[in-house]
Amino acid sequence: MAHPNLPKDEVVERLTRVFRREGYEGASLARLSEATGLGRSSLYHHFPRGKEDMAEAVLAASRDRIARLVLVPLAADGTVRERFVAMARGFGEFYGNGNQACLTELFGIGTPGKQFIPVLTIGIARMKQAIGDVLVEAGFDDALAQRRAEDALIAIHGALVLSRAGGSTALFQRVLEELPDRLLS
Amino acid sequence: MAHPNLPKDEVVERLTRVFRREGYEGASLARLSEATGLGRSSLYHHFPRGKEDMAEAVLAASRDRIARLVLVPLAADGTVRERFVAMARGFGEFYGNGNQACLTELFGIGTPGKQFIPVLTIGIARMKQAIGDVLVEAGFDDALAQRRAEDALIAIHGALVLSRAGGSTALFQRVLEELPDRLLS
DNA sequence: GTCTATAAGCAGATAGAC
DNA sequence: GTCTATCTGCTTATAGAC
Question: Which residues contact B106 (CB under 8 A, 6 or more apart)?
Fold first, then answer.
């Protein structure tokens, strides 16, 4: 319905919303078509290999968004604590304050999910590295820095799962608030 | 193929394996049929409402298994630390040392997942309560006990997600090993 | 309690007009 | 770059024989 030449970024954003709500297998072409306002064939024009290509575009956009919301703030000016606070805010925005699921979680599931694992692995490693670098700068030795960075990512993703399953995002919010202290204690 | 009157427990166990590997939407009747050795119609004989009934049976069996592997050890005799160590071992077995996904994670996804949220919520609350009770017994005040119990569950589930996405279960194993110390420190 | 056969619908994907 | 129409295969689900 309507062909307003929606910019590709906006198309990918709408696809992302569906994938995050329904998961990879649950995101049917019907739903993706409806969310973008593009017919099936239009989607195939933009994404020749279909759902697979859409998922890859969504992952690439999410990688960029994580860079902007999390990695850039971590590498910015300011005290170490200020940067961790900014990072926590970034994670909060990226995950819709606990209401939006994580592609790491959704895209790793089942037979079709296997193909996405390498991309997800790289994304996680990048975040871990960025957090670890700041901790090293704060004076922690390398091993401890890596472990704490890992623990921070574990806490964020665990809180996300339990928030959804528990029906409340309070848990996720708490984890984010405590994150700077937990990293620096 | 073959009709050896497989005991229902064994059928549910095999269904569980498929659901945990493929997720709710990915677990097609074809795969469930193959895994159990029962034809489609036999499955409908045992589970009249189809996949939905199978998922409920799988959730009930998992609840029982968590009770046996985690809740019973937490309420057993022995020092507080010994019970937490036993609990960690129980979680390790339940999650196949990090190789088996969590139904909490898989069944909460997408449109069909909504109906399972209440059951998942109860399951999480029960585990949190059981851990919190032991911490109170160990002398922690109620609020701190609840928070630490929550943190433990967050760590376990977060580690599970990151282990799968990161391609290694080392992370999950580490979290389990550190769990007793983290709860009691 | 299991099977074979089949229905009805939706999945992903393509052809070709405009 | 979008559309309508269509294809094939797989999905859940049911009917009825044994």
Answer: A109, B19, B20, B23, B24
* Strand D footprint nucleotides (protein C-beta < 7 Å): 1-6, 10-16
Considering only residues 46-65 of protein chain A, which place a Cβ less than 7 A from any atom of strand C?
A: 48-52
Nearest CA in chain A to B125: A166
Average pLDDT of A149-178?
A: 96
d(CA A92, CA A85): 11
CB of A38 under 7 A from strand D?
yes
Q: Where are the domains of chain B?
A: 8-184
* pTM higher than the cut 0.85: yes
**Average pLDDT, stretch B18-46?**
97
B104 and A23 within 8 Å at the Cβ level: the answer is no
Q: How many CB atoms lie within 10 A of CB A151?
A: 22
Average pLDDT of every residue of chain B: 96
Residue B167: partners with Cβ closer than 8 Å, 6 or more residues away? A117, A121
Looking at the domain A58-184, which fold is it? Tetracycline Repressor; domain 2 (1.10.357)
Q: Which CATH class is domain B8-184?
A: mainly alpha
Strand D lies under 7 A from the Cβ of residue B27: yes
Q: Provide the pLDDT for residue A35.
A: 97
Taking only the tens place, the pLDDT of each residue in B61-77 is: 999 999 999 999 999 99
Q: Can you read off the two tokens belonging to residue A131?
A: 């957090």
